[in-house]
Amino acid sequence: MDTNNTRTLVKFAALAIVLAALVLMEEPTSITACNINANHLEKCRPAVIGDNPPSPIKECCELLQAANLKCICRFKSVLPVLAVYPSKVQALLSKCGLTTIPPACQALRN
Asked: Which region is the signal sequence (predicted)?
């Protein structure tokens, strides 16, 4: 693995740890990444986990519509650490009516 890939992997791992910690924290702490308040990510979680996830709620879709998708898609390799099915993310974006999906998100797979 070259140095650039190692650095990228370390960044993704750090982001995963931060996001996981935010989900587990009881105190309201707000970190914004990719135009998304990390505390609000839980609104979308049910729609991307499990074998037959439910449709996303309105608040989830509003969150994604305001997000910087190109930025979010850069972190797709972290999704398995967060117990999120990557293939469900692309479906979620479509269910929320997002038609301009960045190429990095179009390649999401389990």
From this structure: 1-33
